[in-house]
Design goal:
single chain, 182 residues, mainly alpha, 3-stranded parallel sheet
Length: 182
C-alpha cells in the first residue's frame, strides 16, 4: 500500500533525524478535501498523536470542483478546459463527477445556514480537523483568496452536528479504528 509506505517512511525519517540530532519532519503534505479523505483521516492520525506530525493540506476545493464553476460542465475559461488538464475534465464529466456535483448541491443549504459560501464551508471543514496544521489555498485572483479566507469566520460554526450532516451527505467518511476527528 502506497499510503502505508508513506507513513512508514515518515516514521523512519523521524527516527533517523532524532538519532542524528537533526530536526525531524514536522508535517506531511497531503491532498485533502470533501472528496479526498483517506490519507488525512485514516493514515496520518497515528503520526499526529505519536510523533506530533501535522498535515499541510492542499486542494481544499478539489481543483476547483467545489467552487461551483463546474456545476454546468466545463467553461472555456476554466483550468479543466486546458489540454494539459484533460484528466480533470474527464473526472468532472464522469459519473463520479456528476455525483459529486449533486452532493455539493445538497451541501448548499448547510452553507446557507452558516452564512457562508460552499468554498468557505469546504475550507473550514478541512481546517476543523485536529491533524491539519494548515490548508494551502490556490486562488486565481484576489477575490477568490478573500472569499476562501472567510472560512476562518465559519470555523467556530463547524460543530460536530454540522460535521455529521456533511458526512451524511457525502457518504464517504473513511473507516478508522480510532476516530481522531472532532
Amino acid at each position: 500500500m502506497m499510503n502505508t509506505l508513506c507513513t512508514v517512511c515518515l516514521q523512519e525519517a523521524y527516527s533517523v533525524a532524532r538519532q542524528f540530532n537533526m530536526i525531524p519532519p514536522v508535517c506531511e503534505q497531503a491532498e485533502y478535501h470533501l472528496f479526498q479523505r483517506e490519507k488525512v483521516e485514516v493514515q496520518l492520525p497515528e503520526l499526529y498523536h505519536k510523533i506530533g506530525v501535522g498535515a499541510m493540506t492542499w486542494s481544499p476545493l478539489a481543483c476547483g470542483v467545489i467552487s461551483g464553476k463546474y456545476e454546468n460542465g466545463v467553461p472555456e475559461s476554466a483550468r479543466a478546459s486546458l489540454k494539459c488538464y484533460q484528466w480533470l475534465k474527464d473526472k468532472i464529466l464522469s459519473e463520479e463527477g456528476r455525483k459529486q456535483q449533486s452532493k455539493l448541491k445538497d451541501l448548499l443549504p448547510i452553507a446557507e445556514r452558516l452564512g457562508c459560501t460552499l468554498p468557505q464551508l469546504a475550507v473550514a471543514w478541512c481546517l476543523r480537523n485536529e491533524g491539519v496544521s494548515s490548508v494551502l489555498l490556490g486562488s486565481s485572483n484576489p477575490e477568490q483568496l478573500i472569499e476562501n479566507l472567510g472560512a476562518i469566520q465559519v470555523l467556530p460554526k463547524m460543530t460536530s452536528h454540522i460535521v455529521n450532516e456533511v458526512d451524511n451527505i457525502l457518504g464517504n467518511k473513511p473507516f478508522s479504528k480510532k476516530d481522531y476527528r472532532s
